Amino acid sequence: DTGVSQDPRHKITKRGQNVTFRCDPISEHNRLYWYRQTLGQGPEFLTYFQNEAQLEKSRLLSDRFSAERPKGSFSTLEIQRTEQGDSAMYLCASSLGAVQETQYFGPGTRLLVL
Amino acid sequence: SQQGEEDPQALSIQEGENATMNCSYKTSINNLQWYRQNSGRGLVHLILIRSNEREKHSGRLRVTLDTSKKSSSLLITASRAADTASYFCATPESTSGTYKYIFGTGTRLKVLA
User: Fold this and answer.
1) Residues with Cβ < 8 Å from B68, sequence gap 6 or more?
2) For residue B27, what are the contacts with CB-CB under 8 A and spacing of at least 6?
3) Which chain B residues in 57-96 lie under 8 Å from chain A, judged by CB atoms?
4) Whole-angstrom Cα distance, residue B73 to residue B62?
5) Taking a C-beta distance cutoff of 8 angstroms, is the pair A77, A25 a contact?
6) Which among B94, B51, B99 has a CA at the least distance from the CA of B72?
């Protein structure tokens, strides 16, 4: 399977715990995006990488959130001291090269904070 | 930041009918994309239309773009139960040389067999 993969697919955690999600983009894609989606809403942009450089972070991304993309391949999104409001679907997408390219989405990680 | 807004929010039709959903956006764009999302799954890209295009077709999909009205429409002809999904438009936003896409709130389409 050469699509975008995300792990885990589901995560249940208690408030205050830290969680980490992983995204593996399509191998030749140099752009990687993280989105958050709550029920009944569209995806909200969180952050974006070009290769290993994090080029933009949304104001939605508080200091409890951090993302990395070491070596410009897979990416991780960590949420520290989770809150119930962090419960959502976290989507990763990748695209190739130049701007305005189609984004290919992974299946998402559904987070539930109790 | 700009955001596409889809209309209607929800649409229920019989199999075989056509489904039309609309997207409005706020600022000038050079392209617009439509995506589909089945319940609880990731998004699937359907079609990209550029600002110098007025209409584009892909199978049973027809997308139009009216840059003067800042609006786009997605038409699904001869709908099938498998078309049941949420449909989102996405428009680019440029900030300090970086590009990201802003998604609308979506149209939830239900096709009844």
Assistant:
1) none
2) B2, B70
3) 88, 92, 95-96
4) 8
5) no
6) B51
Q: Which of A43, A45, A56 sits opposite B43 (nearest CB)?
A: A43
* Nearest in space to B79 (alpha carbons), one of B11, B38, B19: B19
Q: Is A66 on the interface with B (CB under 8 A)?
A: no
pLDDT tens profile B39-53: 888 899 999 999 999
pLDDT tens for each residue of A22-70: 999 999 899 999 999 998 899 999 999 999 999 888 887 889 999 999 9
DSSP strand pairing (B10-14 vs B107-112): parallel
